[in-house]
Give the backbone structure.
Amino acid sequence: MHGPASPGWLLVALCAATGTYCLLRMRSSVEEQRGAAGGEALMGFGMAAMAVPAAVFSPPGWVWPVYAVVFGAAGLRALWAARTGRHHLHHVVGAAAMVYMAMVMAASPAHGHAHGASGTPVLTGVLLLYFTGYVLLTGVRLIPVVAGGGAGAGGRAAAGWGDRPELARACRLSMAIGMLAMLLPL
């Protein structure tokens, strides 16, 4: 570690890389992949921007309400999409967490990046429990299962790299880990 800004920059890099990969997944030939990837790209880049260390850039006060509106709209879109698939509910929770963090930042005296900010302990705890559970469950799902017989890598070659479900899961896992890192200081 090279001072307190290092973890913030690592989080920025993780979230920006995830957002970039999600943008690339939007070129998928699978409609469901494209729809989910757009919301995940927004989440990744929003988290990256929110995680920039305050010593480098402290955004003006009007930024936080804009974050709340943008992620509120993303949450409503995900809620609408949840009619067709349960997996969109995770996007609803993620967007709600981003709205919550933006509101906490807007209410903090210095409008800092969680320095001196204090959220509602119960809500922060519930979000921490949710994302911890999500990280553990998704991590277990990423553990490769040894296939018996002829199901090797040949079946996977037909899918494009942007359509591989394990990469999408790894993307969601990295964003959930990032969300945990952002919620802890609250």
About this structure: The radius of gyration is 17 Å.
